[in-house]
Amino acid sequence: MFVISFSIDSFKSRCVVGDELGQGVLASVYKGRRVSDGRQVRLPPQIPFYWSFFPLLSFHLQLIEWFDEPQRYILIQERPDPCMDLESFLKKQGNCMDEDMARDIMVQVVEAVNQCSKRGVLHRDIKLQNLLINIDTLEVKLIDFGCGDLIKTTPYDRYAGTFRYCPPEFLVYGSYDADPATVWSLGVLLFRMVYGHLPFASKFETIVGIFVFKDGLSKECHNLIAWCLEWLPSKRPSLQQIRQHEWLDQDQVGQ
After folding, report:
1. Catalytic residue flag (residue 149)
2. The pTM is what?
3. 48 confidence band (pLDDT: 50, 70, 90)
4. Peptide bond into 167 cis (omega under 30)
């Protein structure tokens, strides 16, 4: 993909900024329109120039072009339409969803996270608000890499993300590894989608690691959630094991 850096005057002449869509960790995101062809885009124009990992913000949404200003970067990204964040979508569904819909979404989320991992990128804030869903096609996009980092083989000693998705090893020992922490957040996400609430209401509950399953879900779904939310990081599945789990592999369900 060919991307060019333009001057400030060039940006103002090429894009029209609209209403705010939301706020991420480092940037406010706005609706926008490209003057040349009327294409609807996303504009996060408040990324400070000294932030060295700014390209992570556009890892899953297509990066159309970017502008290099003296004090900030301006990224022009695709804006899927019609779409909303997954939290808003869930509220319209009665605050939770059935297993079939949750499976379709989880397959996409796991694949997105797996692609990030293959490229050495750690998102660190996987949650409902950071997933965009097209309400017509149910296509899902992972957004807001403001907490992101490059994957390393040694533990992280600083938690960046939402604490209700935080793995217990950080709360107890003050450190965590990339993949097990990501898997924990996927377990929290899946629990939230099918139950309508988070599995742990406080840091204490996360540390204790006790959560309650209710009737109504398949044993395969229960099994995957419980595996992702294993207290010991070494007992959690890998991303590849999650993708191959019988609940996500519809051909295996019911066999």
Report:
1. no
2. 0.76
3. very low
4. no
Annotated binding site for ATP: 78, 85
Helices 99-118 and 178-195 pack at an angle, to 10 degrees, of 160
Select which of 9, 37, 68, 125 is catalytic: 125
The domain made up of 8-78 has a fold known as Phosphorylase Kinase; domain 1 (3.30.200)
Q: What amino acid is encoded at 212 in this protein?
A: V
Binding positions: 78, 85
What would the pLDDT profile of 154-213 be if each residue is shown by its tens digit?
Answer: 999 999 889 999 999 999 999 999 999 999 999 999 999 999 999 999 999 999 988 888
Euclidean distance between the first and the last CA atom of the chain, given in angstroms as a whole number:
44
Pinpoint the residues of the chain covered by CATH 1.10.510.10: 83-243
Tokens at residue 55, please? 């390209």
